[in-house]
């Protein structure tokens, strides 16, 4: 292989890596959670790409970034992620799944719970489900 050909291949590979990094960064930015409110102890963030509307029910994933880590047996929780179903007409919410994370970046799952049969209920004032209901149902 000649030096010119080797240089061309190296340049093509480097260019492809830069383009891939730029695409990954733009996708991450588009999927980054958007703050929609505050609760006692944390900031509520909506994962906009997760919002789905079907037959009057909204399904969405929300995160809560805790202002201070929550101490639990076995360590600390830094954030949570909850998959909710909201019925705007009835003003009720059902939790489908919950994740709690043991690192500040929200990548190490400390606990995951999946609800067998989600049940709808009126959310408590000042809670994450109430913030979600108020934000998603006003549109």
Q: Name the structural class.
A: alpha+beta
Based on CA atoms alone, the radius of gyration comes out at: 21 Å
Count of alpha/pi helices = 2
Proportion of helical residues: 25-40%
Largest sheet: 6 strands, antiparallel
Q: How much strand content do the residues show?
A: over 45%
Poorly predicted residue ranges: 23-30
CATH architecture of the largest domain: Beta Barrel
Number of strands: 6
Q: Which strands sit side by side, in order, in the main sheet? A: 1-2-3-4-5-6
Distance between the termini: 61 Å
Question: Assembly type of the shown chains?
Answer: single chain
Order of helices and strands: HEEEEEEH
Corresponding CATH superfamily of the largest domain: Surface-adhesin protein E
